[in-house]
Amino acid sequence: MTLGASALTFSGLATPAHAQVPGGAGSPCIETATHDAADGARGGHAGLDHRDISAAQQRAIEARTDRRLEAMTAKQKKKAQTLAATVPVYVHVMRDAAGNGDVTDSQINQQISVLNNSFGGGGGSGAVDTGFSFTLAGVDRYNNNQWHNDLQSESYRSQTRLGGANALNIWLVDFDYLGIATFPWDYSSDPDIDGIRVQYSSLPGGTATNYNLGETATHEAGHWFGLYHTFQGGCTSTNDEVSDTPAQSSSTSGCPAGRDSCSLPGLDPIHNYMDYSYDSCYTNFTSGQSSRMDQAWTAYRG
Ligand SMILES: [Zn+2]
Questions:
Q1: How many whole angstroms from 39 Cα to the centroid of ligand 1?
Q2: pLDDT tens by residue, 122-154
Q3: Which of 59, 103, 221, 284 is deepest in the core (most CB within 10 A)?
Q4: How many folded domains does the chain comprise?
């Protein structure tokens, strides 16, 4: 295990169980790359934790979204936006056979509150209300050693996923990542695995040091709504397809005030939920990100 070398290690993962996960750190990304064109993980291993999307793929996705929006009537768009008002959330707690990996109902409720606060603009400086809110629609718990470690992930997700395109499914597992998400434009081809996988110890009150305020779910939900990392594309003007998140050359670790990794205008958006900073460092989504989420929602989840 090389967690100690990661830019974003957290002690909660340094348990013997992780050393037994077949395939090691990179496997979730590699195994599902063709289907689960999503986030790599926040806080995983440098070079493996971030599933790159090429500039060409990025252009194709943007064009596809534009085409879908152009093809929709005003009525269809309005209906989609109404649906977006409240997102039903299904939480799947994947415990091992001995019951490890459980979280309390209180932690789950706190997690929903964190999502509502973060997406509602309550995070602090620069925060905008994205207009999205969340309500807990269901909690189920499983005891399965494989599922607990995120093995057979396509199988377990398809067996347990609930709701439609507008439902956020959160699978709480114990793996080498903080989280992995699917993107909205992949829903139509892979609806059964749509959602986010989140390290269970990242929930509020969990043991993931520096990452236990519940913002991993915020970050992964951001991907689920169609946001890229703020460091997507590095120091390019295209960057993350959002004009009000200054470009940055790479992910941020910790909370380094004043970081400015590109010569393009603006300091790195280290307080943005779509960077890799500590939970306590996050304060905001931007209005540009809010607009992007609206568009992706309308095109793919409404
Ligand atoms: Zn991410």
A1: 5
A2: 999 889 999 999 999 999 999 999 999 999 999
A3: 221
A4: 1
